[in-house]
Amino acid sequence: MNGLPLTWEFLAVPQAVPEVRQILRERFEGEDAGDLLLCVSELLANVITHVGERTPVALRVSATPSGRVRVAVSDPAAAVWPVLRDTGPETTSGRGLQLLDALALRWGVEQAPYRKTVWCELRAPKRRVGLRPDGGGTGAPAQGRLGLPGDVRGPGGGACPPPARPLGLMAE
Question: Which residue, among 5, 1, 10, 7, has the nearest Cα to 150 in the 3D structure?
Fold first, then answer.
């Protein structure tokens, strides 16, 4: 789990979700990070749906001392708590936390006076079978591609270089 922790601050907008997934896919290239990508997507989608588009969020992906990956999404709506719902077969929404609950080893909510953080812990992504340790010859992701506009921290907590391409996640 080289390159952790990662911290990004940006506005929660629908186009941010696939962009964040792509950045994490590049970071975990050669590793089976599907559960991580799905959990990040669901946590961000919950903010967009239940708190509102353009809500400022902080996303942190870090390693735990026990070797797990911890994903945490903070937003300023301290009173809007996620609720794990029972859904029927005809229900078309409300399954995000069910997915999180099924995939995560554990998850929860931390409340502060002016924000809440929804977090989950997952098994660390494993290297995919058949790939060489160097990523299968594809090379490591470019350091500059790991940043989103805002406060971006890379390996060891240091600032990442500016993104190699504009991601359009912040207001103009």
Answer: 10
Q: How far apart are alpha carbons 96 and 46 in whole angstroms?
A: 8
- Say whether 98 sits in a helix, a strand or coil: helix
pTM of the model: 0.73
Give the Å distances, CA to CA, from 34 to 18, 56, 73, 127: 13, 25, 18, 12
Residues 148 and 31 sit within 8 Å (Cβ to Cβ): no
Q: Rounding to the nearest 10 degrees, give the CA dihedral for residues 133, 137, 138, 139.
A: 70
Query: In whole angstroms, how far apart are CA 101 and each of 3, 25, 38, 120?
Result: 26, 22, 12, 9
CA distance 3 to 20: 16
pLDDT cut 70: percent of the chain above it: 70
What pLDDT score was predicted for residue 130? 59
Q: Quick one: 107 exposed, middle or buried, by C-beta within 10 A (0-12, 13-18, 19+)?
A: buried
Express each pLDDT in 72-130 by its tens digit.
999 999 999 887 777 777 766 677 888 899 999 999 999 999 999 999 999 999 887 65
